[in-house]
Design goal:
Blueprint lengths: L1 E5 L7 H14 L3 E6 L13 E5 L3
Parallel strand pairs: 1-2, 2-3
Amino acid sequence: MNIGITCYPVAGGSGIVATELGQKLAERGHQVHFVSYALPFRLDKFRQNLFYHGVET
């Protein structure tokens, strides 16, 4: 399944929850796309099925 997650890229709160959720879904074989104005804090290394799409605010 292709899943899109919008999140704040900060080091606390909802950004951490969104990143952890996306990583677990990717481990289960889903393609997860993060949409944010900066790379999410915990998305610091390459993992299969995880993608980042930057947007301007």
